[in-house]
Amino acid sequence: MLAAGAVTLEDASDAFRCYPDLWPTADAARQAFHRARRVAAGGSEAAAEIGESHAPLRRAIYQRAGAGKRPSSLAFDPAVVPADDLRTWLKARVGPLARFEIEPAEPPPTLARSEPDPWPARFRLAGLAERLHAARPKREHGVRQLDWDAWQDAAREAVGMPSTEWVAWRAMIGAANAGI
């Protein structure tokens, strides 16, 4: 339903009214909803993928006008169907509404940091490693290849960088130190 119109409804008969092209009859829509709930209750990964959306959806509660009509809910993508237009969109498809409430939007998640950012310390450590590099014997002075590689691995692990970042970082620091 989200792909067809950016609104997904909890009630099968209302979903059929809103999206008559998705099911041949209202009964077929009810059976599809029943199957989807049964599969989702079983914890199937396929069912989770079918119902999964990465859009920031909002929820609304509505109730069709008339005796015996129960409240139902829907989810919508406000980027496609703005909250101001949702009532009109729904009313045009399911008929008069006795109740309509859009739940408040959830605030965006905040990144709580309990620890200080480790990158400044890593950069300082990498700078120290480069100064050490300038002071230690060079490979061309007779240092064995095995010792050279061990030193490179130990320095990279101390800084905590992946190999590709370490090579780029060494080139950058080496160029900066050449100007000192």
What would you note in describing this structure?
- The protein is α+β, with helices and mostly antiparallel strands and 180 residues long.
- It has eight helices and four strands.
- Helix content is 52%, strand content 12%.
- Helix 2 (12-18) packs across helix 3 (26-41), helix 6 runs antiparallel to helix 7 (145-159) and helix 6 crosses helix 8.
- The chain folds into two domains: 2-45 and 52-102, no CATH class; 119-178, no CATH class.
- It has a four-stranded antiparallel beta sheet with strand order 1-3-2-4.
What is the fold's blueprint, element by element?
Elements: H1 2-5, E1 7-9, H2 12-18, H3 26-41, H4 45-51, E2 58-64, E3 72-76, H5 83-94, E4 97-102, H6 119-135, H7 145-159, H8 163-178
Antiparallel strand pairs: 1-3, 2-3, 2-4
Helix pairs in contact: 2-3, 6-7, 6-8
